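Structure tokens please, single chain.
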Amino acid sequence: MQATDIAAPSAQRTSTPARPRRRVGSQLSLPHLVTLLAGLLAMLLVFAVLRGGEATSRVAVAAREVRAGAPLARSALRFTDLRAPAAIRQQLIGPESLAGLEGWIATRTVAPGELVTRGDFRPRAAVAQQRAMSVPVDPAHAVGGALEAGDRVDVIRVLDTGQAVFVVAGAQVLSVNRPDPSTIGPAGAYSLTLAVSSQDALRLAAAIRSEKFEVVRSTGTGRALVGVPPDQSGVPAGTG
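Here you go.
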């Protein structure tokens, strides 16, 4: 009886089936595999499209540090090959466009080896070391607002004595700021941006302060003498 009692548990242990071990790969079902394959194909398609739209171009990088406010010189840049989409290449500087940018002013400090873009430089305010100065003026006192960029203008100041003198002669109009009538709210004031010398800027600032001045178009005419009042006939006392 004791042998029978001992054998029974032994038989039960040997007859218990072992739990099968699950394979790691069995956790990926068919829908999972389809999703992974679809994502992989999408990535390959995007990569193929991007690669197809890229081309190698010669683009400018800084050969040395270019400080903000410094004029651009050809020696400050060197060129390297770069593969990039067309939208990015349009913002970069190539050898063919460098000549038109020489002398432009750096808007930020560019470190050596850094890619430079067209937005990193802007044209000089005016030629021949002149200043660009904004002149707020009523269009009624500026040829009825009919001035355009490229025009030449004289600025006449009316003194407290009632006498009028030229304070600026033959200044180039760089731009004309006209209020936008479609703008909701304050549309801004009419103004001119003129290229003036340092002395002209001082005289013009005084005229603007007094609010007693006129802007006249002088495009194609002789240059009036600054500080010389017109004679009784209204013709400038001299030209130069």
